[in-house]
Amino acid sequence: MAASPQLLINESAMGRNRLIRRLGKLGLWLNPVFAYFFLWAPILILVLFSFNESKSVASFTGFTLKWYNNILNNVMGAERAFSTEIMLNAFRNSLFVGAIATVIATALGAMIALAMARGKFPGKGLIDGLLFLPVVIPEITQAISLAIFFKVAFDWIAVISGERVFPGFHTIIMAHVTFNISYVAIVVRARLADMDPQLEEAANDLGANPWQTFWRITFPLILPGVISGALLAFTLSLDDFVITFFTSGVGTSTLPVFVYGLLKLTVTPEVNAISTIMMVLSTLLIGISLALQGRNASRA
Amino acid sequence: MSTYDVELIDIVKDFESGGGRVRAVDKVSVQIADGEFFALLGPSGCGKTTTLRLIAGFEQPTAGKVLIRGIAMEGIPAYHRPVNTVFQDYALFPHLTVEQNIMFGLQMEGLDKKAARKRADEALELVRLPGVGGRKPHQLSGGQQQRVALARALVKQPAVLLLDEPLGALDLKLRVNMQYELKALQRDVGITFIYVTHDQEEAITMADRIAVMNEGELLQVGTPRDIYEHPGTRFVADFIGETNFIAGTLLERRSDGFGAVRLADGTMIKAQLSEALKTSSGAVTVAIRPERIGIIQGDDSIAPEDASMTALDALLMDSQYIGTDTRYTVRIGDQIDLVVRAQNIDDRESAAFAIGQSVKVYWSVSSTTVLDP
Lengths: 300, 373
Fold this sequence. Notes:
Oligomer: heterodimer
CATH architecture of the largest domain in chain B: 3-Layer(aba) Sandwich
Number of strands of chain A: 0
Strand order of the largest sheet of chain B: 6-7-8-3-9-10
CATH architecture of chain A: Orthogonal Bundle
CATH topology of chain A: MetI-like fold
Order of helices and strands of chain A: HHHHHHHHHHHH
Number of helices of chain B: 8
CATH class of the largest domain in chain B: Alpha Beta
CATH topology of the largest domain in chain B: Rossmann fold
Strand content of chain A: under 5%
Order of helices and strands of chain B: EEEHEEEHHHEHEHEEHHEEEEEEEEEE
Low-confidence stretches of chain A: none
Structural class of chain A: mainly alpha
Distance between the termini of chain A: 65 Å
Radius of gyration of chain B: 25 Å
Shape of chain B: elongated
């Protein structure tokens, strides 16, 4: 019988490797803990102090809902500038701008996504790349460019028609549509990419013309993506400050612009409370949006 | 009125691909009769699926004509053609129930819901899948989804049913069962089936006629027996079943359909000429199926020993037991290796030939085919 080679096990090397593996596991656990601490700590403090009895952020003296009560009942807070009426008005403005901008951006964004996924035309690659531009360029750049664009456009209108147009809801809405189209298109496109293009051929094969195929097959299948995109757009619109600030006119303050106005004076517990409400609302909308995006297209 | 259900006349299909043009289908002409089970067979990328898509109307031919029941299909979109497709991955609508999937095509015809539902239920029974109408496609197994896809296409009672590798995604056992079922179903409904597959066994078992395609060209059309027994080209012989190819030189082309071929080692054999053979003399390939070669002990003699048989001395190089058969590799002369398949009639190991021993191999000259090299 031939001698079988000795199976060598290096005990000390195995022990060392075990230790390294354990440390690695610990590291993998600690890493997100630290990262999330930095991410969430400021927000936690904001939420915490919105329930703080004391007006000062120096210490947490006890739990209270009075700041939430204040913002709803027009009780003057720490600052005279605050009034429930102005706040609710700003909130209504936010909803109004958000709703209209969302409808327009969703329709346009979904159409772009469809054209990108199904169409064949020259310059498609370029348009495809440009689609991501509004997502990556600094918001302040976009805000300034929009402000300049509106000014130039209004100057031209004034020259041609003799009428002076002023910024207002229409400019905010146009600005919001501009940055939201990309987000909607990206979300809807992801959904379309998930969808088997053979389904449309199958519908064709079974006698459905392109119109019937779209409404009976394509649209129902991308609907979760469209709704998800719309919720994302609505949330971005509600949350937007910079672009709104640069494109708004007189009396068209949205909620974030209003909150900024309060901040100029001092941070009050009421601001904490409003911010907390806004955050909860946004999180909720984004949560629904993500849940819809996560739904598997093959099981829709 | 044409007597054919589907007629392709010099179909050409070019695709643009990265600046260049790729010819997917090259001058394909074929006639498919009413009620025929017709298989389009070939390796992947041979143009068989493109041909099917040209008939379905998903693609338009670059040149040539598609006729369905004698009517030219040029400019007629897929949704107006009297054909239906069973897709490879079924392409069931995931947001609709099984019943709604089957009703879809009927409702597009303007049938009311009640009548459509009744027909859908009948179709589900036809494919032996009653009672699953309320379920969503993803709740069914692959085999069941396949039946739903079949029901959805058949319920429209098309002139021609197009099937694109419909059994490709199923496991082997289910696939074999479905082959018999599909064949039986086709006989029952009497609809013309055009069946695309890369599986030669599937094509042979199911089809009335097979068209073998390669690189966009239609190489041969015929019954499974025709194709298997009388392959017209080396590619067809190689693609369908296992074949021995022996290089040789054609010395004489006789009027009775046979020829004299000198093999590389100088051995002279008589072999049947393929009808498609272009070579009149010179280099050729002789094809012979492993199961058509007999093997006996080297000192045995075969009967009858006449011109209809070829017998050659050989050396057994290798032996492989594969259950039903034994696969021998034998060497003729000093360079020609042949694979021989012998059925294991005897269950004893001693009955098999031993590696290294001398044997005699023999075959009927009609089992050989002389092909272009």
